[in-house]
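ok so for the tutorial part 2 we go from a plain amino acid sequence to predicted structure tokens. step 1 is just haveing the sequence, like this:
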Amino acid sequence: MSKANEFIEALRRIEERGDVEPMARLFAPNAELSNPAMSRPLHGQDGARDFWRSYRHTFGEVQSEFRCVVGSDRASVLEWKSRGTLSSGAVFSYDGVSVIEHPAGLITRFKAYFDPRALGLQLEHAA
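step 2 — the prediction. this is what the tokens look like for a chain of 127 residues:
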């Protein structure tokens, strides 16, 4: 199974059950995780747990669809669209791209790119 497929399967476990452990195990001890909404990156498997718990708790329900997945033995790029409901029940959707570096098998760098303003407006309107 490719690293991109492992990542997608782990994300499905987070989205469906809130289980972050399969995802955390994909990250190296020195991994860096970030996105445009964060003021500073998180690090390591504990950082991965915090990142993905925060992601899941932002939404009532969430499901990501992947339109384009490109990978090599060193990195993967995933284009996605996430949809669902916020904890208030309001509907949301946003899209972006994630870059995953995994040169030695474990993920050493995860960076998600999306428009935080577009997602923030949806979160604000639901509040």
